[in-house]
Amino acid sequence: MNDKSPPLTTSLGFGINPKPKAGRGRKDDISPQTERKARVLLVDGDVESRRLMTARLTTANYSVESVDSAEAALDACVRSRPNLVVTDLHLRAMDGLGLLNELKSRWPAVTVIIVTAHGTIAQAVRATQCGAFGFLVKPVDKAELLGQVQRAIATSTFALVGGDWRAEIVARSELMEDRLGLANRAARSDAPVLLTGENGTGKEILARAIHAASRRRDKLFVAVRCKDTDEDALEIELFGRRGPAAEGTVGLGFGAIDAARGGTLLLDEIGYLPSRLQAELMAALRGPSGHGQAAPRVDARLISTTSRDLKELMHCGDFRQDLYSHINILPIEIPPLGRRREDIPLLVSHFLEQATEPGGSGKIYTPDAIELLATTDWPGNVRQLFDLVKQNVALSHNKIMSKEFVQRSLGGTAKKLPGYEEARDAFAHNYLTSNLQAASGNIAQAARLAKRNRTDFYKLLARYRVEPNDFKNERSGRTSKNFGSKD
């Protein structure tokens, strides 16, 4: 280890973490995750009630966060992934039962305790029938509180023992929650996982999360970059140095496949693996005999990532079908940022925190600036978003960063997602022009194609400023002239 502070490393799809970026074939020393205090989220509009329960739970060595509304509770669950939610039945806007249903719909594994007054015990009983772990009656007895919280946390699977496997992941969208559910289920087996998605979507960070959630979490996570690596160097990196030169030489015959034994081996961008090395990898996966009679050389959980279409590569003869079949047992597609825009404000908030130097003054975006970021096209996905936030924090002279400032930093390279009205009008205009082109400008025929009467069709043309005469084709004109020449 050197004395320099490790650089910030993008999470590629979910967050930023101050840890060294793994180099090619780096064997990251991932020690057992530090045990954390069990996290309890208290939801209660009564300040005094929150204060009393917080004090009791904190004294009992729980990590406690308290909020006063269901909306704040949902945000807190996204941010901190509590082991247990203790919520009052009576809340403003959304009540405790509504919060319970929302929590269970988003995170079925979350454990919830309902707190109620004497007069609403029947409602609390109904809440337990809807999935609540149990209920407490106000005024809450200390022994009852601590006993029930202890039992509830013992049954919770919302956050795994030994640390939160997805602590580095920042996401609230249903789409990402679905992918994370798949990843958590994949972590329970040793079957190969294939993570697909565009560059910058978070394939490696999800691979690390799967490793952290697996039984192999105490072993090494070894990453090998298959892209932009010399073929001979990549061969040595994967399989170690072989032949007479390596005999009797300590360390030279030790490759990533051997280093990852018992842990997880990540083949990043496997679509770039040369054909010759694909054959060697397949031989290692099968075992020395090639017929399964001996143990395979790869005794590691194999996770592969790709931003390329492996099926298309197979069709072109650039990727082995047997290798594809082997690595594609548990496929997970990671969506681009454009399909999970509801995550952008949360990501921006997280990135602002990560991009601010220790001791530096925090900076924020105006609501208009956040809206611009949320509706901008991000071809580089979350990596590009983080780079922009980092640049904005470094260049802004003001604490508050405006929409105009962000627009200037985006320059002419960013495309803004159109609003609903704008997108609808553009679709209608394009539809009408295509319709008239197909009908060669004939209004009656175009109206029939659109399944509208001529009056309504004329109104649509006027509304979207489409001129039918612009679509009279030249063939109609030539036909008329030919008929005229015969007279």
Describe this structure in words.
The protein has 487 residues and is α/β, with parallel strands linked by helices. Helix content is 44%, strand content 12%. It contains 20 helices and 15 strands. The strands form 4 sheets. Strands 3-10-11-12-9-13 form a 6-stranded mixed sheet, with helices on both faces. Helix 4 links the parallel strand 7 and strand 8 (134-137). The protein is globular. Residues 1-35, 159-163, 243-252 and 474-487 have low confidence and may be disordered.
Keywords:
487 residues; alpha/beta; six-stranded mixed sheet; five-stranded parallel sheet; 12% strand; globular; disordered N terminus; disordered C terminus
Number of helices: 20
Task: Indicate the proportion of strand residues.
Answer: 5-15%
Radius of gyration, taken over Cα atoms and rounded to an integer in Å:
30 Å
Determine the mean pLDDT: 80
Morphology call: globular
Widest beta sheet: strand line-up = 3-10-11-12-9-13
What's the total count of β strands? 15
Largest sheet: number of strands, sense, barrel closure? 6 strands, mixed
Helix fraction bin: 40-55%
Low-confidence parts lasting 5 or more residues at pLDDT below 50?
1-35, 159-163, 243-252, 474-487
First CA to last CA: what distance?
96 Å
